[in-house]
Amino acid sequence: MSSRVHPFAVFLLALCVVSGLGLLLGAPKPGSINATLDPVARQAWALMLTGGSIAALAGMSWPGGIFLEQIGLVAVGGGTLVYSTAIVATAGAQAFFPAAITLAFGLACLWRWWQLQRTIREAKRGI
């Protein structure tokens, strides 16, 4: 297993897989934020959350998988940025705090992508 694997990241990404699969395989709970979203937007979000998390976890588990991890993190991070905006736009101000938590997670995914990118650049320079 790669030295990039951290139990906290594995746990969060695994929860994203479970959450995304729940959206992909079932209908959203009535009254939930997901129920307010357009069905196409909800499916796109679920696919990015699930697929991106699976890719990031696979990349973390595979010694040469840093690029796969990056792809997954960008998918999850980008998806959360769009999702956060969409839930505030459709559900209004009452959705601000759930959107902020989701946005913070997405920014953390994108920050981790950037850290990995720096590691790749340093390795190319022979540092």
What does this structure look like?
The protein is 80% helix and 0% strand. The mean pLDDT is 90. It has one domain (7-125). The two termini are 23 Å apart. The protein is an all-alpha fold and 127 residues long. The protein is built from 5 helices and no strands.
Protein traits:
127 residues; 0% strand; elongated
Kindly summarize this structure in a few lines.
The protein is mainly alpha-helical and 127 residues long. The protein has one domain.
Structural class: mainly alpha
Q: Radius of gyration, Cα only, in angstroms?
A: 16 Å
Compute the separation of the termini in Å: 23 Å
The mean pLDDT is 90
- How many structural domains are formed by the residues? 1
State the share of residues found in helices, binned by percent: over 70%
- The number of distinct β-strands equals 0
Order of helices and strands: HHHHH
Give the strand content.
under 5%
- Model regions low in confidence, pLDDT < 50 over at least 5 residues: none
Report the total helices: 5
Major sheet description: none
Strand and helix map with partners:
Blueprint: H1 7-25, H2 33-36, H3 39-61, H4 66-91, H5 96-125
Helix pairs in contact: 1-3, 3-4, 4-5
